[in-house]
Amino acid sequence: MSKSLGNVIDPRDIIGGATLQRLQFPQGIPTCGADALRLALLSQNCQGAEIRVDVGEVLSQRRFCNKVWNGLRFVLGVLGDLGGEFQPPHPEQVVPGGPMERWVLSRLAGAVSECGRRLECLEFHGALAAVQHFWLRSFCDVFLVGGTPF
User: Fold this and answer.
1) Burial of 124 (0-12, 13-18, 19+ CB in 10 A)
2) Is the pLDDT of residue 136 over 50?
3) Domain ranges of the chain
4) What's the pTM value of the predicted model, to 2 decimals?
5) In whole angstroms, how far apart are CA 36 and each of 14, 31, 56, 120?
6) Mean pLDDT, the chain, as a whole number?
7) Neighbouring residues of 67: CB distance < 8 A, sequence distance ≥ 6
8) Which sign does the torsion angle of CA 16, 19, 24, 28 carry?
9) Which of 103-107, 130-134, 143-147 has the highest average model confidence (pLDDT)?
10) Taking a C-beta distance cutoff of 8 angstroms, is the pair 60, 39 a contact?
């Protein structure tokens, strides 16, 4: 694709959104935000110099960013700290209180290990996938919904 031909989407149109009339895109592009665009770029397994950005992938990453925001607000709300005063204990001081906490910490340790392994190989898409899998499938879907001690 060539900028001179006008067939390239400006990243600012993805971040801030663009109307159909301005962009001549089938439904326009909704506002996605810079974080969603960054995650969409990271999620690509690119072997060459070109990255094909799908607006649908950017929207999917926007939903993930929203899930992170909502999960953190929920946890901080339960801890009574939406004002930003909470200081987490040092990791060596964390003692799981029950089987569900041990389970989620084991899943977290696995995700951290996988993420580190992928980053060492410069496989950013794999590192992102490990983080997202933990957050969505273990932390939010299981721990917060069914087994949270909050």
Assistant:
1) middle
2) yes
3) 11-79, 97-149
4) 0.75
5) 9, 10, 11, 23
6) 81
7) 135, 136, 140
8) positive
9) 130-134
10) no
The interaxial angle of helices 124-133 and 99-120, nearest 10 deg, is: 170
CB 118 within 8 A of CB 32: no
- The C-alpha atoms of residue 20 and residue 26 are separated, in whole angstroms, by 7
Closest CA to 23 of 31, 57, 42: 31
pLDDT digits 0-9 by tens, 6-37: 556 666 766 677 665 555 555 656 777 888 88
Rounded to 5 degrees, φ, ψ at 18 are -150, 145
d(CA 76, CA 83): 9
